[in-house]
Amino acid sequence: MQRRLLGHLSIPWVVVFCCSGCVSRGASLDPEVRWRQAERRLGAVVESLEDVRLLRNDYDAVILLDRSGEFRGRAFLRLAELDLAQKEYDSARANLEQALRAGLEPPDQVAALLLLGDILERRLGRPAEAGSVYRQILHEHPRSDEAEVARLRLEHLTR
Known about the structure:
Layout: E1 2-5, E2 9-12, H1 13-19, H2 31-65, H3 72-85, H4 89-102, H5 106-123, H6 127-140, H7 145-157
Helix pairs in contact: 2-3, 3-4, 4-5, 5-6, 5-7, 6-7
């Protein structure tokens, strides 16, 4: 079955429905070529997912094993970054809050606070909580670059 397009082109229905949104400029329409490309990508994705799982296990182990607390906060911060990359915003929020409770050095602390405010505001739709976090940054780290960003975000929230 074919469909007439632009008065002179005939394109099989299969191509119109299956490929119209998935073929980028210069991409091959040869199924074997596309199969090989997909298989290469699949291998990389599976490997990457395994790396993420291993990273999570490593950071979880650090959290459990670190008695001094030297690495605990940073491990929670890294878990939050992994969550954010996977669009797991509630989990990222929880891990950032754990990182802040566990203790972070000032540069990591202010970065974690700003990230927490951003997640609360833009990803979770909780502007009041985000405003509280931005005010905390202004109070605890008034001379940091993040304080300027927090001030701007707070102004945006109060408009």
